[in-house]
C-alpha cells in the first residue's frame, strides 16, 4: 500500500554536484551506511559509483560485507567493527584509532588497508593527539613488516554544517599537522579525508583528496548546495467516512472535530517510520491540498482531515516529496518531529517497499 519511490537521477545529480564543488582531484566516497539512509544500500551504491563516486563508506563491518555480497567491487571503507568481525573484512579498508585496534588488524591476516583516524575536535573516536606519534610509528613499523598498508589519514568534522568555517579550518589544520607527523614516521598515506556532505561545501580543503558524502546524496541540503531530494513517500487512502461535529478521532480522542468532517484513513504508521510525535503538526498531500493528521498516529495507520472533499479509497497520498507540487518535504516532517531528516530516512520501516525510478515523477 505504501511505497518509497527513490529517484536515482536525484542521487546522480547530487553526486555530480559534490564533484563540482570539491577540488579537482578530490574523490567522492558515497556513504551508504544504514542501508543508504533507508534508500537501499546496494542500489544507491551502484548509482553513486555510476555517477562518479569512487569509494563506498559504511559505519559497520556487516554493511561492508553486504555490499561485497551484492557484488560491489569498489573500494569500501568502514569505521566501526568488532575485533571478531575483522576476519570477514578482507578487501575492505578499516579505520584504526589506537594501537590496540592496530594490533587487532595485524592479527587479522586478510585485512591490509588501514586509515589512521586522528581526533581533531569531534571527540567521537580517533587517536588523541598525544597518542598520534606512537600510533603512526607503530603503523610504520608494521607497514615495513608488510602486514598492513596505511592508505589514509582521516578525521571527522564537528561543525561541518556551519557556514562560518572557522571551526572546520582549525580541524583541517590539526589534520594537516597529523599528516606531516605520519609522513615523518615514514608513512605515505594516499588519501587524506575530513569532510562530510556539509563540510565539503563549507570548507575549502585542498589538503584533502577524498570527501565522505552521506546526507547530501539524498538531497539533505544543510548548506544550500542545490541538491535534489531523493525520495517520495506515498500511500493511498484506505477508507473514507463522514463524522459529526464533536466526535473524537483515534486513540484517547486527543482530537475532537469542531464541525462535521470527512475523514480519510491512511494506512501507514509509526512501524513504517512515521514519527508519532509529529501528530498535531503533520499533514499529508492528497487531491492537491494538505490534509492535517487528526489525533494520534498509530502503529499502522492514521486519520486525516479531508474537510468537505469527496475523497475516495485508493486516491494517492504523498507523505513527503520534493515539495514541488505543494506536498510536505522531509525537512518539514523532521521539524514536526523535532529531529533531522536523517533520522526520518533511517527510521523508514522494512514494511515499506522501495521502488526505483530514474526521473522525478510528480
Ligand atoms: C555519517 C558519516 C559521514 C557522512 O556524513 P553526512 O553528513 O551524512 O554527509 C561521513 N563520515 C563519517 C565518519 C560518518 O559517520
Automatic annotation (TrEMBL):
<feature type="binding site">
    <location>
        <position position="299"/>
    </location>
    <ligand>
        <name>substrate</name>
    </ligand>
</feature>
<dbReference type="InterPro" id="IPR029066">
    <property type="entry name" value="PLP-binding_barrel"/>
</dbReference>
<feature type="active site" description="Proton acceptor; specific for D-alanine">
    <location>
        <position position="33"/>
    </location>
</feature>
<dbReference type="InterPro" id="IPR009006">
    <property type="entry name" value="Ala_racemase/Decarboxylase_C"/>
</dbReference>
<comment type="pathway">
    <text>Amino-acid biosynthesis; D-alanine biosynthesis; D-alanine from L-alanine: step 1/1.</text>
</comment>
<dbReference type="InterPro" id="IPR000821">
    <property type="entry name" value="Ala_racemase"/>
</dbReference>
<dbReference type="GO" id="GO:0030632">
    <property type="term" value="P:D-alanine biosynthetic process"/>
</dbReference>
<dbReference type="Pfam" id="PF00842">
    <property type="entry name" value="Ala_racemase_C"/>
</dbReference>
<protein>
    <recommendedName>
        <fullName>Alanine racemase</fullName>
        <ecNumber>5.1.1.1</ecNumber>
    </recommendedName>
</protein>
<dbReference type="GO" id="GO:0009252">
    <property type="term" value="P:peptidoglycan biosynthetic process"/>
</dbReference>
<dbReference type="GO" id="GO:0005829">
    <property type="term" value="C:cytosol"/>
</dbReference>
<comment type="function">
    <text>Catalyzes the interconversion of L-alanine and D-alanine. May also act on other amino acids.</text>
</comment>
<dbReference type="InterPro" id="IPR001608">
    <property type="entry name" value="Ala_racemase_N"/>
</dbReference>
<keyword id="KW-0413">Isomerase</keyword>
<dbReference type="GO" id="GO:0030170">
    <property type="term" value="F:pyridoxal phosphate binding"/>
</dbReference>
<dbReference type="InterPro" id="IPR011079">
    <property type="entry name" value="Ala_racemase_C"/>
</dbReference>
<keyword id="KW-0663">Pyridoxal phosphate</keyword>
<feature type="domain" description="Alanine racemase C-terminal">
    <location>
        <begin position="230"/>
        <end position="357"/>
    </location>
</feature>
<dbReference type="Pfam" id="PF01168">
    <property type="entry name" value="Ala_racemase_N"/>
</dbReference>
<comment type="similarity">
    <text>Belongs to the alanine racemase family.</text>
</comment>
<feature type="modified residue" description="N6-(pyridoxal phosphate)lysine">
    <location>
        <position position="33"/>
    </location>
</feature>
<dbReference type="GO" id="GO:0008784">
    <property type="term" value="F:alanine racemase activity"/>
</dbReference>
<feature type="active site" description="Proton acceptor; specific for L-alanine">
    <location>
        <position position="251"/>
    </location>
</feature>
<feature type="binding site">
    <location>
        <position position="124"/>
    </location>
    <ligand>
        <name>substrate</name>
    </ligand>
</feature>
Amino acid at each position: 500500500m505504501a511505497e518509497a519511490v527513490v529517484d536515482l537521477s536525484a542521487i546522480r545529480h547530487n553526486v555530480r554536484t559534490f564533484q563540482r564543488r570539491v577540488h579537482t582531484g578530490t574523490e567522492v566516497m558515497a556513504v551508504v551506511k544504514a542501508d543508504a539512509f533507508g534508500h537501499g544500500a546496494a542500489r544507491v551504491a551502484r548509482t553513486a559509483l555510476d555517477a562518479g563516486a569512487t569509494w563506498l563508506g559504511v559505519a559497520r563491518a556487516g554493511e561492508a560485507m553486504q555490499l561485497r555480497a551484492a557484488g560491489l567491487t569498489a573500494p569500501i571503507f568502514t569505521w566501526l567493527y568488532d575485533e571478531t568481525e575483522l576476519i570477514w573484512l578482507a578487501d575492505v579498508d578499516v579505520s584504526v584509532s589506537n594501537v590496540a585496534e592496530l594490533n587487532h588488524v595485524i592479527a587479522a591476516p586478510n585485512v591490509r588497508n588501514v586509515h589512521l583516524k586522528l581526533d581533531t575536535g569531534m571527540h567521537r573516536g580517533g587517536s588523541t593527539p598525544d597518542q598520534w606519534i606512537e600510533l603512526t610509528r607503530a603503523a610504520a613499523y608494521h607497514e615495513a613488516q608488510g602486514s598492513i598498508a596505511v592508505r589514509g589519514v582521516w578525521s571527522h568534522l564537528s561543525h561541518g554544517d556551519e557556514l562560518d568555517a572557522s571551526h572546520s579550518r582549525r580541524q583541517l589544520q590539526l589534520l594537516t599537522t597529523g599528516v606531516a607527523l605520519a609522513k615523518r614516521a615514514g608513512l605515505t598515506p594516499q588519501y587524506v579525508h575530513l569532510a562530510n556532505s556539509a563540510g565539503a561545501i563549507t570548507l575549502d580543503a585542498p589538503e584533502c583528496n577524498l570527501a565522505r558524502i552521506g546526507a547530501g546524496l539524498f538531497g539533505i541540503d544543510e548548506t544550500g548546495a542545490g541538491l535534489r531530494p531523493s525520495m517520495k513517500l506515498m500511500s493511498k487512502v484506505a477508507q473514507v467516512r463522514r463524522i459529526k461535529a464533536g466526535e473524537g478521532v483515534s486513540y484517547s480522542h486527543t482530537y475532537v472535530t469542531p464541525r462535521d468532517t470527512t475523514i480519510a484513513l491512511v494506512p501507514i504508521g509509526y512501524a513504517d517510520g512515521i514519527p508519532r510525535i509529529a501528530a498535531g503538526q503533520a499533514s499529508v498531500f492528497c487531491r492537491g491540498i494538505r490534509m492535517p493528521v487528526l489525533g494520534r498516529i498509530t502503529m499502522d495507520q492514521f486519520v486525516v482531515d479531508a474537510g468537505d472533499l469527496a475523497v475516495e479509497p485508493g486516491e494517492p497520498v504523498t507523505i513527503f516529496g520534493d515539495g514541488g507540487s505543494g506536498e510536505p518535504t522531509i525537512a518539514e516532517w523532521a521539524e514536526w518531529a523535532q529531529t533531522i531528516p536523517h533520522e526520518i530516512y533511517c527510521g523508514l520501516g522494512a514494511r515499506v517497499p522501495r521502488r526505483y525510478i530514474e526521473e522525478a515523477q510528480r
